[in-house]
Design brief:
Layout lengths: L3 E8 L5 H14 L5 E8 L5 E3 L24 E5 L8 E5 L2 E4 L5 E4 L10 H9 L8 H8 L1 H10 L7 E5 L6 H6 L1 H11 L5 E5 L9 E3 L5 H12 L4 E6 L4 E9 L7 E2 L3 E5 L12 H6 L4 E4 L6 H17 L4 E9 L5 E7 L9 H9 L3 H10 L4
Parallel strand pairs: 1-2, 1-7
Antiparallel strand pairs: 2-3, 3-4, 4-5, 5-6, 8-11, 9-10, 9-11, 12-13, 12-14, 12-16, 14-15, 16-17
Helix pairs in contact: 6-7
């Protein structure tokens, strides 16, 4: 049987660029090369697509350095001919184009805007190229936490109380500070309880997220909104939930099939032993291995774990999910389940929650990659 040619996309223009690089490194190191011929295609931070750049298989975060896709000596630009579809991938050398050959599918290991938000998915739809993961609607809606909440609430799934702000009316830090009282008034009118979490609506990996703890402190609130606005003009102010953050991996490789759900897992913040106010920010996710560890299944009663699984499956269907997603929920002290957000291309390193959850549920990392790819092949 001939190998299927799979383009693995990584990097991109989003803040999550280095995490995409690490996820792609793990995928490329674990993909079944007896079945598939992977073609790594990197996207630089300015949006250029290249092949034959630095080999991502050697990238990791062990030395504390964030990897980046860059054009290097010998790398070539990628040119797409949309009309040619699966035969429309070319590498440019001078004035000549070299075909990739027939591309059977694309695995877009891209996190955040310009990759996980429906943009790349729309491009591949136009080319009629099969790809791993959610379609345009689910990708776009789940990238935007505001609209995720709208869809989930419409499906009767509980979400955290909050408000959405349009930060485009404020141009600089001083203007945010000057309008702090107005922002505070909106929080008070919504009856939100402290602590608050202020976050960009369309960003991932905890970029721009601030915990606001001092009630009625307009300056602190305005500064948090300003920080979030650096990543997105749409800003969420959400009530902090008294609950544990539990994550559940959902898998549906073939279109139309019922989603399968892993055992729920929990990121345990070891730093809370010394700092009760710590939360899961970018550094504790990726840069400080001593800050946290993964527990799957989470230490919860079985009936609560099953409730989390059922809610995750319902949320996946509510947003028209396909392929894979990680549904992040809060479990309250009374056993209630509230969905926080849905990641349509979650972190995909071998030690990320999504693969770890499936490993604990009986699906190994390489087998997971194989299922996702084979589910979309024609």
């Amino acid at each position: 049987m001939s190998k299927k040619r799979i383009v693995v996309l990584y990097g991109g223009k989003a803040d999550e660029h280095p995490i995409s690089c690490i996820s792609a490194a793990s995928v490329l190191n674990a993909i079944d090369t007896e079945r598939f011929e992977p073609i790594p295609v990197g996207i630089t931070k300015d949006g250029s697509w290249i092949v034959d750049g630095e080999d991502p298989r050697g990238w990791n975060l062990s030395n504390g350095t964030l990897p980046e896709v860059k054009a290097v000596e010998g790398s070539r630009e990628v040119v797409l001919d949309i009309a040619l579809g699966q035969d429309g991938f070319f590498a440019k050398t001078g004035d000549s184009l070299e075909s990739f050959g027939h591309v059977d599918a694309v695995f877009p290991v891209l996190h955040g805007p310009f990759g996980e938000d429906g943009t790349v998915q729309g491009l591949l739809e136009m080319m009629n190229v099969p790809y791993v993961g959610c379609g345009v609607l689910a990708s776009a809606a789940c990238m935007d936490k505001h609209y995720t909440k709208v869809l989930l609430a419409a499906a009767g799934i509980p979400v955290a109380p909050g408000i959405t702000l349009d930060a485009r009316s404020y141009d600089k830090a001083s203007e945010f500070a000057a309008n702090g009282a107005d922002i505070l008034a909106q929080v008070q009118a919504a009856g939100l309880q402290y602590p608050l979490f202020v976050k960009p609506s369309r960003a991932g990996s905890s970029f721009g997220v601030t915990k606001v703890e001092h009630e009625d402190d307009a300056a602190e609130l305005a500064a948090a909104v300003f920080e979030a606005s650096k990543h997105d003009w749409r800003v969420l102010v959400e009530q902090g939930i008294d609950g544990r953050e539990i994550e559940c991996a959902v898998l549906a490789p073939k279109a139309g099939e019922q989603p399968r759900v892993s055992w729920p897992g929990e990121i345990v913040l070891d730093s809370r032993a010394t700092d009760e106010d710590s939360f899961y920010d970018f550094d504790s996710k990726y840069m400080d291995s001593s800050a946290s560890h993964v527990e799957v299944p989470a230490n919860l009663p079985k009936e609560t774990l099953e409730r989390v699984r059922q809610t995750a499956a319902k949320a996946f269907v509510a947003v028209d999910g396909m392929g894979l997603s990680r549904v992040d929920s809060f479990v309250t002290p009374d056993g209630g389940v509230m969905v926080n957000e849905i990641n349509t291309m979650p972190g995909f390193t071998s030690i990320s929650m999504y693969p770890k959850a499936w490993e604990a549920t009986g699906v190994g990392y390489s087998a997971l990659i194989t299922e996702l790819i084979e589910g979309i092949l024609r």
